[in-house]
Design goal:
Elements: H1 5-26, H2 30-50, H3 54-78, H4 84-87, H5 94-116, H6 126-129, H7 134-142, H8 147-168, H9 180-184, H10 188-191, H11 210-213
Length: about 220
């Protein structure tokens, strides 16, 4: 049986995502890795959209490509990577950027072609069977049948964020850091002292000599 165009497009998106993910973990330059990771996220979003999960695809583009990549750049800065060579010669990043942009453009055109086709790709899914929208079916499944895995994933991600902060935290000499535990133990008597003193009348200015006072 010859595969139709939606199936070929799905396989192409999946292969692109796998190749881009491999390029992400093998790239030595963090900027190149970030570009390949953008292509990975976008390719996975295309597979979800062509599979009928439009909400997940759009959320992946908005959240991961738009927010997580910014967080990734912040992490690169926290790791004290020498960014001076990275700022020199933006032209050398142009080939990788053009490749990623062209592949993303081709994927967008392929999605438009699939959606314009007469046959709806992968129409026989759970949302269609339940006669509800994809977003409604996803919310019901996520917060009923898969509530425990969802909470476990949230805990794992929280632990990963805390571990990343602890691994990248470095103490440098000559810098001041706040200690929240010490601040919470501060008492008023440690910072303020009341002193009782007798009042003293200020001394009057001395009178000028008569020779200086005469005109």
């Amino acid at each position: 049986m010859t595969p139709d165009f939606p199936t070929l497009a799905f396989l192409g998106f999946a292969a692109t995502a796998a190749i881009a993910a491999l390029a992400t973990i093998t790239a030595r330059n963090p900027v190149h890795a970030a570009l390949w990771l953008v292509l990975t996220f976008f390719s996975v979003a295309c597979t979800w959209i062509i599979g009928g999960a439009e909400f997940l695809g759009v959320a992946l583009v908005l959240v991961y490509v738009g927010a997580v990549m910014v967080l990734f750049l912040f992490v690169v800065m926290m790791l004290d990577v020498d960014m001076a060579p990275l700022r020199e010669g933006y032209v050398r990043y142009l080939p990788v950027g053009l490749v990623v942009a062209l592949v993303m453009l081709a994927q967008i055109l392929a999605l438009i072609g699939v959606k314009a086709a007469a046959e709806v790709p992968f129409a026989d899914n759970a949302a269609v069977a339940a006669d509800v929208s994809n977003t409604t079916w996803l919310a019901r499944a996520l917060f009923t049948e898969f509530m425990l895995p969802f909470e476990v994933a949230a805990v794992i991600l929280t632990v990963a964020v805390v571990a990343a902060v602890m691994l990248t935290l470095r103490r440098r000499g000559g810098t001041k850091h706040q200690d929240p535990s010490a601040q919470s133990r501060v008492r008023a008597s440690d910072r303020l002292r009341m002193v009782k003193m007798d009042a003293e009348r200020p001394a009057l200015p001395a009178a000028a000599p008569e020779s200086e006072a005469a005109p």
